[in-house]
Specification:
Length: 492
C-alpha cells in the first residue's frame, strides 16, 4: 500500500505512433472526406478562395487565408487541439469556425503517403512534411521536419496542402459533390474551385417553404422544397441537416412512411446548436439538444405533409379538369352523330347548341355546380341562361371538379370527387353523374395518360346510356359501345 501511495510512482500513458497515421482511416467512413476537411480549414482561416488541384497521384489544396506562423504550425499539428473551441470566431470575417477537435487533417493520411504543408504569414514562410513511412520508422522521434523558406517564396499569405503518393484516383465530380455538401460555399466572401472551375451551390426548383423554428437551445432555420415529379430522380430525397453551414447528415424525419409523396421533398435545415460526432458525420442523438430538435422537426414535417397533399390534390385537379373536358367533347361529338342514342331527345335543329362546360373546383352555395358553359370549336354559342332548376348535388369536397354537357336546354353535370375507396366507381342522381376519384379502378386508369380520358368517357357514356332506358341494361350496353366507338374513332 505504501508503494502505491508514494507520489514518485507513476504509470506512463503512451500511444503507438502508427495509430496517428490510422486515425483518418478509422475516423472517416469515406476517404474523400479529407478534401472537405482541408477546405473547411481554409474557411476557418478566413480564406476567400480555395483551389483544389487534382493530379494522377496527388491532390493540392491552396488557400489565400491568414496562413500560419511558427506557433500556428505547432498548433496545427497538435492532435485534439481545443484552439478552435476557445476561439470560435475567425479574426477577419468573424466566421463561425467549423473545426472543433483539430484532427480532421489526419483523414488525408488514409489515402496518401506524404502530407506536405506550405504556409506563409507575413515574413514567415515554412514547409512541414509528414512522411508516413519515415514517421512510423522513427520509433522514438515525435518531431516533423520543418524547413524555413525565404519571405518571397510565396507571394501572398495562405496555406497550401499537398498530398502525394495517393493510392487511388478521385473523380473531380465526386470531390465537387463532397464540397457542395460539406463546405459553406454559400457563405459571403468564400469560393471553392476544383481545377480552376468554381463550385456552385446546387439549386432546386419547386415550391419553396421557408422554415424558422425556435427551441430552448437555438434557432432552426432553412428551406424545404417540394420538387416536380420530373426532378425526383436527379437528387436524393430528404432534408440535409447542417451545422455551421455544413451538412452533417441527411434525415427523413419519418417521411418514409408517407408513401410515394416523400420522394418529392428536399431541403436544408440549419441547427448550429446540435452536438456532432468527432468525424462530423452524425449527431449525438442521446443529447437534450438533439431530442428537442427532433420534436420541433416532427411538427414542421407534419405541416409539410399537409401542404404536399394540398399541392398534389390541386395539381391532380387541373389534370382531371383537362381530361374531363376532352372526354365530354368526344361524348358530345358521338351524341351529335347518334341523336337516337341521346336520352335528351334529338338535338334542336337550327338552334344554338351548347357543348361541354368548364371546370369548377367547388360548388356554389345552395348546391349548384359553378362554371361557365364552353362549346367545342366551330359551334355557335348563346349567352348563358339562368338555370330553371338546380340539380340535386351531393355534399362535395372543396376539390370537386365539375363540368356540364348541354344539348339545347337539357344536359347533365359531371362531378369528379372523392367518395372513398369503398364507394361506387360511378353513380347518378337525376341529371348529375358522379365519378369517384378514390376508387381503385379509377386510380389505376388515371395513372396512365393514354387510358385516363377513355376511362372517364366509359363511365359517363355508361350512365348516359342507362338514362335512355334504365330498365334495359343490355340495350344500354349496346348504346354505350356505339357512343364510345364513335367518340374515339378519330380526333376531336
Amino acid at each position: 500500500m505504501g508503494d502505491i501511495e508514494n507520489p514518485q510512482n507513476f504509470i506512463p500513458v503512451t500511444i503507438d505512433k502508427s495509430h496517428i497515421t490510422t486515425i483518418g482511416e478509422r475516423l472517416y467512413a469515406e476517404s474523400i472526406e479529407f478534401v472537405r476537411e482541408l477546405a473547411n480549414n481554409a474557411y476557418d482561416a478566413d480564406a476567400t478562395l480555395v483551389n483544389v488541384i487534382t493530379g494522377d497521384d496527388s491532390i493540392e489544396v491552396r488557400d489565400n487565408g491568414g496562413g500560419m506562423d511558427l506557433q500556428g504550425l505547432k498548433q496545427y499539428f497538435n492532435i485534439g487541439s481545443q484552439n478552435k473551441l476557445n476561439a470560435p470566431k475567425s479574426p477577419v470575417h468573424g466566421r463561425d469556425r467549423i473545426g472543433m477537435f483539430g484532427i480532421g487533417k489526419f483523414a488525408s493520411l488514409s489515402v496518401c503517403k506524404r502530407f506536405e504543408v506550405l504556409t506563409k504569414k507575413g515574413d514567415f514562410v515554412a514547409r512541414v512534411v509528414f512522411d508516413k513511412e519515415n514517421w512510423e520508422n522513427g520509433k522514438n522521434e515525435w518531431r516533423l521536419p520543418l524547413e524555413l523558406l525565404p519571405p518571397d517564396f510565396r507571394k501572398e499569405d495562405g496555406t497550401t496542402v499537398i498530398l502525394s503518393g495517393i493510392d487511388k484516383r478521385f473523380d473531380p465530380k465526386d470531390i465537387e459533390g463532397k464540397i457542395v455538401e460539406g463546405t459553406p460555399i454559400k457563405a459571403p466572401h468564400f469560393k471553392v474551385k476544383i481545377n480552376n472551375i468554381t463550385v456552385t451551390p446546387k439549386s432546386l426548383s419547386g415550391h419553396k417553404i421557408p422554415i424558422l423554428e425556435g427551441t430552448a437551445f437555438g434557432v432552426i432555420s432553412g428551406e424545404i422544397i417540394i420538387v416536380a415529379e420530373s426532378a425526383i430522380l436527379s437528387t436524393e430525397p430528404g432534408i440535409e441537416v447542417k451545422v455551421k453551414q455544413v451538412t452533417v447528415k441527411r434525415e427523413l424525419f419519418g417521411m418514409e412512411t408517407w408513401g410515394k409523396i416523400f420522394t418529392r421533398v428536399r431541403g436544408e435545415i440549419n441547427a448550429d446548436f446540435l452536438p456532432i460526432t468527432s468525424d462530423r458525420t452524425g449527431f449525438l442523438r442521446d443529447s437534450d439538444e438533439y431530442r428537442e430538435f427532433q420534436r420541433a422537426m416532427l411538427v414542421v414535417m407534419e405541416g409539410i405533409k399537409s401542404y404536399i397533399h394540398k399541392l398534389t390534390t390541386k395539381t391532380e385537379g387541373r389534370k382531371i379538369s383537362r381530361v374531363l373536358k376532352e372526354a365530354l367533347q368526344r361524348i358530345y361529338k358521338a351524341l351529335a352523330a347518334n341523336p337516337d342514342l341521346s336520352p335528351f331527345g334529338a338535338f334542336p335543329v337550327g338552334e344554338k347548341t351548347k357543348g361541354p362546360g368548364s371546370p369548377a373546383m367547388t360548388s356554389e352555395p345552395g348546391g349548384e355546380p359553378s362554371g361557365q358553359n364552353v362549346t367545342p370549336e366551330g359551334m355557335q354559342v348563346e349567352p348563358p341562361k339562368k338555370r330553371k332548376k338546380k340539380p340535386k348535388v351531393k355534399s362535395l369536397t372543396p376539390n370537386a371538379i365539375i363540368k356540364k354537357i348541354k344539348f339545347g336546354d337539357t344536359g347533365v353535370s359531371c362531378v369528379v370527387d372523392s367518395f372513398g375507396e369503398n364507394g361506387p366507381e360511378v353513380f347518378t342522381e337525376e341529371t348529375t353523374i358522379y365519378l369517384n376519384r378514390d376508387h381503385p379502378l379509377y386510380k389505376r386508369e388515371s395513372s396512365k395518360p393514354d387510358t385516363h380520358t377513355l376511362n372517364l368517357a366509359r363511365l359517363i357514356t355508361q350512365e348516359i346510356a342507362l338514362m335512355k332506358d334504365p330498365r334495359n341494361p343490355r340495350q344500354a350496353f349496346d348504346r354505350q359501345s356505339k357512343l364510345l366507338r364513335d367518340a374515339f374513332i378519330d380526333g376531336v
